[in-house]
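Marked as duplicate of an earlier ticket. Keeping the data here for the record.
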Amino acid sequence: MALAEIQEFKLNNGMKIIVQEDRRAPVVVSQVWYRAGALDEVNGKTGVAHVLEHMMFKGTKKVPAGQFSRLIAAAGGKENAFTGQDYTCYFQQLEKSHLPLAMKLEADRMANLVITDEEFAKEIKVVMEERRWRTEDKPQSRVNEQFQSTAFKAHPYARPVVGWMNDLENMTAADAREWYNNWYAPNNATLVVVGDVKAQEVVKLAKLHFGKLKAKKLPVRKPQTEPPQTGERRLVVKAPGKLPYLAMGFHTPTLSDKPISAEQAWEPYALDVLAGVLSGNDSARLNQKLVRETSIALDVGAGYDSTSRGRESLFELVATPSEGKTVAELEAALIAQIELIKTGGVTQQELDRVKAAVISALVYQRDSMFYQAMQIGQLETMNYSWRLLKEYPEKLKAVTSEQIQAVAKKYLIKDNMTVATLDPQPIDPNAKPVGQPHTH
């Protein structure tokens, strides 16, 4: 199946428009990405990017609170938003004739959001509930949050996207307005449209709705890098739970938009393939050895993100020990598997399996217009280019066993390791969850 070319445009106010025509169904996905996430927050105001995402549904001068969602629903569409470390994204999925509605509403709230003290006071309580529900009620989430803030010391990735509770308790409507005024501007945004559209018509619509908005002078972003780790770090979280849990992480590089050395160019691809060799399906090494053969783990996984706007990543291993097995035994078994790769590399069969799995995943993802738009939006907002999508499969196919060995030896070492464990405490049968789930 030949995919339509991705086309890129820029409005005079600096807003980027990226369109991928996809005629398979009379549907369109429209996403507005802001280059503003938890990465840009400061101590004392953590969580403000996510709070502002909630406030974006609270109305403008023309569209009252809650009306945005009602208008999209009345047009038969779906909409929502999400905040990450690196970005905030707002999206609609609609029948193609309703694209003008999505653009009109998005352009309006990009420039004319009204943040009242009353609406803020209500919504900040909702966000605190969400934090309790997602993090404080879930022992593994508590471990993961502490793990992040131990692995990263200087870098903003140490802070949770949802924010620390104390910061949420002291946040004001003025903090949300400041965030909106700083970062919500056409020259800090990318519009991605995928679907049954003509690129030139999308640009015409974008000019009509977004073209009249004024660019802003954006705050200067300081480069923030994590200093090298010089010894292993360990932490234990005690929380009510049924089973222990283990998270291990090693600092690793990400893809660079302008690699200055050959290693910088290929190491992230080798780390990507290594994660696939260790985890990803039943025949991957960790599943095979630790779950099926030795039954030391109930479940186990490896993960690595080769892209991030903060240009920092962790190669992570997470696992739950089987009944009767200790976290220490599980950690030793995981490290033994890494050592095997350092000494023996990986087989051609493993390489072929991982590469085939990655390529087929890319093909499946292309079946989803939403996912196609996501990939483009993420890359652009993280200061890469969507052109990476084209190179990615070829670069992965070129990874060798020697390169995988090299990255394992260089990065998966004790002095570069953070280990977090859950020490499960008795569960009170009468305890009620402290938080409530939320959708805006």
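See parent ticket for discussion. Residues 117-136 form the longest helix (20 residues).
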